[in-house]
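Lab notebook: predicted structure, single chain.

Context: the supervisor wants predicted structures on file for every construct in the current expression panel, including those that have not yet been purified. This is the next one on the list. No modifications to the sequence; it matches the entry in the shared construct table.
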Amino acid sequence: MLLKSTGRAYGAWIAAATILVLTGGQACGILDDNGACPLLDPPGILIDVVDASSGRFVPRSANPTGFAIRGSIREPMLLVSNVPGQDRTQLSGGKGPPGARSEVVVYDVEITAEGYEPWRTSGIPVRLHRCGYPTRTVEMTARLLPSPPAG
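Prediction complete. Output recorded below exactly as produced.
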């Protein structure tokens, strides 16, 4: 028997809607500390690659490459896609080792580009969420020195 236009039907509808909202919110990671892992995939490290003498971004034609290094493992960094209208050169990486959870991973970074001296830094801490992704991106700037002319 359908419960039409009665107070009981309305109450049942409200209860069902509440349950759907709460369980849906948990599945989407809307509610705090619910055990669900959001579908995030941020980098642990994001580096602006600039020319130290001019302050401008190193041109992509210089083929900038980078490695996020932890111990003896060298993870290639990715050249971030350019946003139309912006001529930025950025490298991202350091997402943490597979299976790592709720820990801090410390990276060294090495960046090279044609016509520039190699740039290095060390001791960059990347904190991983219990779901395995970085909790925040460490942003920094690599100021590359132009190589002296050969000859």
